[in-house]
Amino acid sequence: MKHYDFEQERIKREILRLNAKRVLIQLPEGLKPETLHIAKTIERFGALPIVSADPCYGACDLAIVEAERLNVDLLIHYGHAKLLRYERVPTIYVEARATLNVNNAVTEALPMLKNYQKIGLTTSVQHVQTLDEAKEILLHARKVVVIGDAGRLNYPGQVIGCDYSNAKSIAKDVDAFLFVGGGKFHALGVALSTSRPTVVADPYENRAYSIDKEADKIIKQRWASIEEAKRAKNFAVLVGLKPGQIKFEEALDVKKKLEGKEKAACILTTKEITPETLIAFPTIDAYVNTACPRISLDDASRFQKPVLTVNEALVVVGELSWEKLCKEGLFGN
Amino acid sequence: MKHYDFEQERIKREILRLNAKRVLIQLPEGLKPETLHIAKTIERFGALPIVSADPCYGACDLAIVEAERLNVDLLIHYGHAKLLRYERVPTIYVEARATLNVNNAVTEALPMLKNYQKIGLTTSVQHVQTLDEAKEILLHARKVVVIGDAGRLNYPGQVIGCDYSNAKSIAKDVDAFLFVGGGKFHALGVALSTSRPTVVADPYENRAYSIDKEADKIIKQRWASIEEAKRAKNFAVLVGLKPGQIKFEEALDVKKKLEGKEKAACILTTKEITPETLIAFPTIDAYVNTACPRISLDDASRFQKPVLTVNEALVVVGELSWEKLCKEGLFGN
Lengths: 333, 333
Prior knowledge:
2 copies of one chain form a homodimer.
Chain A: E1 4-5, H1 8-18, E2 22-26, H2 35-44, E3 48-52, H3 64-69, E4 74-78, E5 91-94, E6 97-98, H4 103-109, E7 118-123, H5 131-140, E8 144-146, H6 165-168, E9 176-180, H7 185-194, E10 198-202, E11 207-210, H8 212-230, E12 234-240, H9 248-260, E13 264-270, H10 275-278, E14 286-289, H11 293-298, E15 307-308, H12 310-316, H13 322-329
Parallel strand pairs in A: 2-3, 2-4, 4-5, 7-8, 7-9, 9-10, 12-13, 12-14, 14-15
Antiparallel strand pairs in A: 1-6, 10-11
Helix pairs in contact in A: 7-8, 8-12, 9-12
């Protein structure tokens, strides 16, 4: 708990304001170990806490169905910024801002950026409040710093798992990107969506490293998956059921395009796209995933069959070239 | 497809009667390999088929949320008999009756029943139409045959994964049970809920075998799980979200009982109880599962922590004895 701001005072105020008796709590995987602690805090505020145990990787996955089924008065979603425009149940987003200092990690990144002059600065919501400090360090090292704002996300420079519009909007203007934050997940997204060298400044580990080799590996793997899918006969187009991931009309469109190329295709709907779910369909040769593109890009080695993004499926049916996909569209779902 | 009656004429009639444009199809794991075939049939009847890819082990798991989210006109649930009293979307149950002859398998079972005079006859919904034939063979072998009907399920002699009331209602009156059907799942349930010797007559493999050793193994495993849970400090009480599995008040009750014994306890809600879901909670020492009891009984080796049924939790808090649990209550959720 010590690394994050859990905004307990705001939560207490909201519970009292709504006179909330039942509160549903949704935590990303990294915060789930704090479940008992968080539940006990809510209980002290006078409400019954219920924790959603299902995987949660983004605010696209808001637990609306659970909240309605269990008749809760308030849903507290931790770790992500608001994404859906409208929530059917009273909802607060606790962004879980990190309380760590990022200066050391950013300083560690400077040698890796020595060949680049113009640096694009990006981060996850946990660290948006540190961008000014990071910028100062880069300016001090005589870099030009650019922070993108395409207007789609909540904060300038912010990226989320499936949306790199802020990075893409400035990719032409920079030589490399610096991502401030933990883990490889978001930094990989920056590298894949911009094709620019990308360095991670990780304040949890106080170190910096390049993500370019991992990004190259994924690009090669995607090529292999697309080639395998070109030879496939029977397709399933996957429709996710998470509130921010349902893309039914796109799925129908992909199905029609595949059938136009003499492929058989059916629509499969699912709550979670997992290897265990798909293994039940031995007669399907390849999948097109209209839900979260990161499942296709990051988890390929866990699946036995190709699981393409929508844009990758367009390469299979010949509507998009591999080159153009690499340049613009890996996150096109 | 050849082993089951898929009632295509009835499906066609319903689609035309409802003028259904979108149809959601829900299949148990064993029928998912037929997905493309079934989807194409529905398409020929003039509707758009959507197949639910999520695991489905019973009619308790009716895909109502999916049906509503995707705005379908008809839900076709295969492989199980109706369980919920009322469906919020037009629903038909295709029980997928097996077209196999069971005579050989039942005849194979006779030597294993030679020491028993009174035989209780049970089956899954796939084979309820064969009970008369099976009874004839047993009568011919000079057995007394009893078929239970406790009034809770759709057919006399029928069992489902979590309900053995038809078997339990006659357990006192029989020396052993014969289960007609495939696999060990239902037969194990008969053995565990009645503590009577149980033989399977499997018409898919045309062979018969005793299930008693497997049942003994599970009983021993349950004892070990309960003992481990007695030493646990932090509990989570699991609430399933499937329409026929939500037991929120029972979960609250168990939470209170655990807390009364100086255990910490919180409520976790989940769509699927899987090892992957629970592994995200390292600080929880033991779980109480108010959803499907079979997850506790059959999958114990897949979980790293004890996952008790509600009745097993009553043993932990001292409200039920192990002996009484074994006699009456393994399926008490």
